[in-house]
Amino acid sequence: MAGKKGTILMSMPLSVPDFETLPNSEDVVQISQWLREAGLSSLELSNAHGTRLRISVGDYESAPAHTAPLSDAPAFAHPEKAPSTDIPVKAPYFGNVLLCNPVTKKEFAPEGSSVKAEDTVAMLQIGELTVPITAPQNGTVAHFVAKEGDLIGYGQTVLTLLPA
Questions:
Q1: In sequence order, what DSSP letters do the residues of 45-100 get, joined into one string?
Q2: What confidence category does residue 114 fall into, taking pLDDT thresholds of 50, 70 and 90?
């Protein structure tokens, strides 16, 4: 069945975790890669003790607790508005967002500031470890999607840039 469309081939056999402990970071990255390859956006597992694990890839926005009924308004209520050219800056890992340098308390890249490719625009904190979030290209910081301290997942948009 290797040639059939929709078949997923994995390099390692899957085993069901016992959830007495959570997967380590390498396991989470591997599961995330499998989800992307399978075209899935998330996976949620739980055990009899109530332990839950949810792994989401790509942009993830939680649904509001109450949603308004659908209206008859067209999807593009403002046709004169051009599509956004903003460039998403995504989290390379999961963790808590740091928009300010933890030592100097200075913002890495305030809204409206110019940044160059590979400049640190924010950081992720995972316990004592910090991981830089860098600009993918030159631009101007347009909008922060995440706030200081937010817990975000791999691939989530942290902020957007206007291209230079």
A1: EE-TT--EEEEE-S---PPPSS-PPPPSS-S-S-TTSPPP-PEEEE-SS-EEEE-B
A2: very high
Tell me the DSSP string of 93-143. S-EEEE-B-TTT--BSS-TT-EE-TT-EEEEEEETTEEEEEE-SSSEEEEE
- Give the whole-angstrom CA distance, residue 35 versus residue 6: 13
Q: Please list the residues that pair with 114 across neighbouring strands.
A: 140
Question: Tens of pLDDT along 5-37?
Answer: 444 444 444 444 455 666 777 777 777 777 777
pLDDT (tens digit per residue) in 116-155: 999 999 999 988 888 999 999 999 999 999 999 999 988 8
Question: What's the half-sphere exposure (Cβ side, CA atoms, 13 Å) at 95?
Answer: 21
Both tokens assigned to 23:
């997967």
CA distances from 30 to 25, 36, 55 (A): 9, 10, 11
* Dist. CA 161–CA 116, nearest whole Å: 11
